[in-house]
């Protein structure tokens, strides 16, 4: 089983970037290195800090891992996504459950594990960081 990518919102422009998550203790900063970016190019600044081409600093609260599941429209589902039922307009928030050591979805105070079959009856409508209003109505 290969590792699952992450996504996060860039610090510099707020755009979403997907790739591999890296935390720099030296800088106390969080980065995503783009998926598929292949380069041996790195550089070191005057402080001795190494930078990797294709990496972007991201806001840590926006980092979410790919669940390995797709919605009913074949979109990847990440932690932090907001899903809407294709039939009854029910809204769910996807999150990592430490208690269950698995990705789960919650509506209000009820949480359930994500299943491949169940997720096919939902679609990703946004995420809790860029579209918090999607959860406020429910």
Write the layout of secondary structure elements.
Elements (H helix, E strand, L loop, with lengths): L5 E4 L6 E9 L4 E6 L7 E3 L5 E3 L2 E4 L5 E7 L5 E3 L2 E5 L5 E7 L4 E6 L2 E4 L2 H4 L2 E6 L5 H4 L2
What does this structure look like?
The protein is mainly beta and 138 residues long. It has two domains: 6-61, no CATH class; 65-136, Roll (SH3 type barrels). Helix content is 6%, strand content 49%. It contains two helices and 13 strands, in the order ββββββββββββαβα. It has a six-stranded antiparallel sheet with strand order 6-3-2-1-7-8, with no helix packed on it. Strand 2 and strand 3 (29-34) form a beta hairpin. The mean pLDDT is 82.
CATH topology of the largest domain: SH3 type barrels
* Class from secondary-structure proportions: mainly beta
Top CATH class of the largest domain: Mainly Beta
| Percent in helix | under 10%
Number of helices: 2
Task: State the end-to-end CA separation.
Answer: 36 Å
Give the radius of gyration: 17 Å
Total number of distinct structural domains: 2
Overall geometric form: elongated
CATH architecture of the largest domain: Roll
Strand order in space, largest sheet: 6-3-2-1-7-8
Write down the secondary-structure element order: EEEEEEEEEEEEHEH
pLDDT average, as an integer? 82
Strand count, sense and closure of the main sheet?
6 strands, antiparallel
The fraction of residues in strands falls at: over 45%
Task: Give me the CATH superfamily of the largest domain.
Answer: YopX-like domains
Any key phrases for this structure?
138 residues, mainly beta, SH3 type barrels, 2 domains, six-stranded antiparallel beta sheet, five-stranded antiparallel beta sheet, 2 helices, 6% helix, elongated
């Amino acid at each position: 089983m290969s590792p699952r990518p992450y996504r996060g919102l860039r610090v510099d422009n707020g755009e979403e970037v997907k790739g591999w998550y890296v935390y720099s203790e030296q800088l106390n900063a969080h980065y995503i290195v783009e998926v598929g970016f292949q380069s041996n190019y790195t550089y070191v600044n005057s402080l001795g800090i190494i930078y990797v081409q294709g990496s972007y600093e991201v806001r840590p609260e926006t980092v979410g891992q790919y669940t390995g599941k797709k919605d009913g429209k074949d979109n990847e589902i990440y932690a932090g996504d907001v899903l809407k039922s294709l039939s009854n307009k029910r809204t769910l928030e996807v999150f990592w459950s430490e208690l269950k050591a698995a990705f789960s979805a919650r509506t209000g105070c009820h949480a359930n594990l994500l299943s491949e079959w169940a997720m096919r009856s939902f679609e990703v409508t946004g995420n809790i960081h860029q579209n918090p209003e999607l959860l406020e109505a429910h």
